[in-house]
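Input record (Table S2, row 328):
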Amino acid sequence: MTTAAITAVGHYAPDHVVPNSYFESYLDTTDAWIVTRTGIRERRFLDEGATSDLATEAAKRALAMRGIGPEEIDCIIVATVTPDMFFPSTAALVQHKLGAKNAWGFDLSGACSGFIFALTTGTQFITAGTHKKVLVIGADKMTSIMDMNDRNTAILFGDGGAAVLLEPSEEEGYGVIDAINFLDGSGMEALHMKAGGSARPTTAETVEQKMHYITQDGKAVFKVAVVGMADVSLDIMKRNNLTSEDIAYLVPHQANMRIIQSTAQRMGLDMEQVMVNIDRYGNTTAATIPSCLAEYYSDGRLTRGDNLVLASFGAGYTWGGIYVRWSI
Ligand code: COA
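Output record (coenzyme A complex):
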């Protein structure tokens, strides 16, 4: 049976490092509060350019790692909540910037679960036998929708992009083995952008009332995220007969260190079995999970045969878990 294997990874973090002390300088917050409540020490800001630039740089790195040209790509899926524009899709802009002249593609809106949803989707194209090389990218320029004067949200997010290449594999038991995804739109109020869409088009008033930024009830999101991410991870373990000893890494969405720790604890994992980079990048939304994969792989901490449980929770609400047996 053909599976979809991850055959290359790439991560792009903009150069501009923004430490917690930056927010201390003008907001009523402290480095100690941010570190203890979130685990974040610094994040990256993209000063010039857009989400398609983050995505394109990440994709270039994945292609270079695989040693192939952009014309070999069949399909590009970009998970993002910060597209360059409503239309055309960010995937179209990435296709052009990469020179992937044989690819079609589309954007996928799954918020912090965007990469999990996109990896699930890309896998279907490979296992159906219709596509040979699918780029799955998670990229977000969160600074484009952040209210820098709101201490509840400004400290949480960063900009970044990361990509994986999916290809068919005939090796049994390797690649993307299983996925479980959920959607519950009743969670909309807790985390959304109030205006700019068809429900509330942009007007001078929506701009003045700061309706184009992230609106979040952090406590409400925290409560459901901590349950949802652990539940779906345990479901994946159970359905695939995985014990905590079988798992090399939990690869969690990086929103809050306390959510990550709680998920690991419920799965019976030590923190050495958990990929973490929230301290250096904050929450880069769709980019967090592939950025962890790329970093741990390039550090030599991820090896062929490792069992990984990828897990996320985000706006919608959206949540999901994927079992991957690492094949490179
Ligand atoms: N610095 C200092 N104090 C802050 C602060 C900051 N940056 N941000 C909020 N506070 C204050 C609050 O105003 C509140 O004060 P009050 O009690 O006087 O009202 C207090 O700290 C506690 O706020 P609370 O919201 O209860 O904190 P928390 O422990 O829930 O942590 C989050 C806040 C946002 C870090 C946390 O709720 C969270 O991570 N939620 C999930 C977010 C998430 O995952 N979002 C992305 C989708 S995946």
